[in-house]
Amino acid sequence: MTGTLALVGGGEFREGCSFDAGLLEASGADEVLVLPTGAAYEKPAEHVERAVNWFGRLGVPARGLDVLSRPDALDGTNAEAVATSKFTYLVGGSPMHVRSVLKDSPVWDGLISAWEHGGTLAGSSSGAMVLCDPMVDPRGGAFTIGLGLLTSVTVVPHHDHWSEDASHRTRKMTPPGLFLAGIDERTALIRDGAGRWRAEGAGAVVLFRDGQPATLDALPAL
Q1: In terms of Cα–Cα distance, which of 4, 65, 7 is closest to 33?
Q2: Is there a domain that residue 52 lies in?
Q3: Domain containing 140 — which CATH number?
Q4: Peptide bond before residue 134 is cis, with ω within 30 degrees of 0
Q5: What average pLDDT score do residues 108-126 get?
Q6: pLDDT per residue as tens digits for the range 63-112
Q7: What total number of domains does the chain contain?
Q8: Nearest C-alpha neighbor of 219 from the set 194, 197, 189, 200
């Protein structure tokens, strides 16, 4: 049985992210490992500090792991850290940078190994987008290659801030059979270890398949 997977629509580590307490409980972790990869050029330390403060309020320490560049993702010490982590969190930023840093790397292999052995993996905004393949290209709303943990569903984060025109355009371009999940900020689409999906948090999750509304119970276990 795999661990829990959380796809967060952005706005992580803030009031309204009620799902984080449940993710902690499911993980059994006594520490949260935070990878600010997506925010490498956007003051990554500030993202880590916010995570430290947030999870501290939930009674568990968090620490950052500076996997910010390709050499960091090839580093064996970093790979071991993520492979042994019970709860790892990928913050938001640039999905293209996350992909270029983590693709086919020991750190990515460590992330997958930890999750496959029951660990909790959360990705917010770009961290959620890049877990999918195909993933939505933020530069125009079309599709591009992701990291491929999920191949049946792809994510539009910050969906509460998307215009209807942008949302409609992406729905029209979605490949046949692929589920498109629009996830609001401070909201998570969560898959538990048994393969059941649920939505939780301050906003909503909307799901489409072949351009038509779908329900969470239609999502495959993986």
Answers
A1: 65
A2: yes
A3: 3.40.50.880
A4: yes
A5: 97
A6: 999 999 999 999 999 999 999 999 999 999 999 999 999 999 999 999 99
A7: 1
A8: 197
Q: Is residue 1 part of a domain?
A: no
Tell me, what's the pLDDT at 45?
Answer: 97
Token pair 């999502």 is at which residue?
219
CB 105 within 8 A of CB 73: yes
Q: Is residue 56 part of a domain?
A: yes
Beta bridge partners of 126: none
DSSP-assigned letters across all residues of 104-159? TSHHHHHHHHHHHTT-EEEEETHHHHTTBSSEE-TTTS-EE----SBSSEEEE-SG
What crossing angle do the helices spanning 106-116 and 76-83 adopt, rounded to 10°? Answer: 10
Residue 57 pLDDT class (50, 70, 90 cuts)? very high
For the CA atoms of 120, 126, 129, 131, the dihedral, rounded to the nearest 10 degrees, stands at -40
Phi and psi (nearest 5°) for 8? -105, 140
Is 2 within a domain?
Answer: no
Average pLDDT over residues 188-204: 97
Please provide the DSSP assignment of 48-115 as one string: HHHHHHHHHHTT--EEE----SHHHHT-HHHHHHHHT-SEEEE--S-HHHHHHHHTTSHHHHHHHHHH
Q: Tell me which residue range forms the domain holding 173.
A: 8-218
Residue 189 pairs in a beta bridge with: 7, 199
